[in-house]
From TrEMBL:
Catalytic activity: 3-dehydroquinate = 3-dehydroshikimate + H2O
Protein name: 3-dehydroquinate dehydratase
A GO biological process held by the record: chorismate biosynthetic process
Taxonomic path: Bacteria, Bacillati, Actinomycetota, Actinomycetes, Propionibacteriales
Species the sequence originates in: Nocardioides szechwanensis
Site, as annotated: Transition state stabilizer: R17
Subunit structure: Homododecamer.
Residues given in the record as substrate binding sites: N73, H79, D86, I100, S101, R111
Gene3D superfamilies the UniProt entry points to: Dehydroquinase, class II
Alphabetically ordered keywords of this record: Amino-acid biosynthesis, Aromatic amino acid biosynthesis, Lyase
């Protein structure tokens, strides 16, 4: 089964971006890990990252057309993008939301809401990079 792992803005700088919050694993390393975890679970994983909201919307629309399961870390868009909300609403295959940190426990109140959560089968927060493995395991269970 094919699975898309989609990462939103600023996650391309993983490893260099606020490592005390997000860790030292780079996005390229994360992508390799996800592909390997997926292989072990019998999943064909493709990992993408974008800083452009429209690109993420196109990927989500394609996933809706193809009924492809999605692991989504929409990063800051999670907190305010109604376009991402509407795109997630159209998905029919499982959607698992991931955040490396636990946004609900962070001091910025804007992080305490997610437009993705209402559409997600499961939400994985605060497990660091390992959260992506947990999300893929959730998809593999279906
Ligand atoms: C994040 C949490 C968001 O609040 C933040 O805007 C991000 C990353 C996470 O993975 O912990 O960019 O989604």
């Amino acid at each position: 089964m094919k699975v898309l792992v989609l990462n939103g803005p600023n996650l391309g700088r993983l490893g260099r971006r606020e490592p005390e919050i997000y860790g030292t694993t780079t996005h390229a390393e994360l992508a390799d890990l996800c592909v390997g975890w997926g292989r072990d679970l019998g999943l064909e994983v493709e990992v993408r990252q974008t800083n452009h909201e429209g690109e993420l919307l196109d990927w989500l629309n394609d996933a809706a057309d193809d009924a492809t399961p999605v692991v989504l870390n929409a990063a800051a868009w999670s907190h305010y993008s109604y376009a991402v909300y509407d795109a997630c609403a159209q998905l029919t295959a499982p959607l698992v939301e991931v955040h490396i940190s636990n946004p609900g426990q962070r001091p910025e109140v804007f992080r305490h809401t997610s437009v993705v959560t209402p559409h997600a089968e499961e939400v994985v927060v605060g497990h660091g990079i390992e959260g992506y493995r947990l999300a893929l395991e959730r998809i593999a269970r279906d």
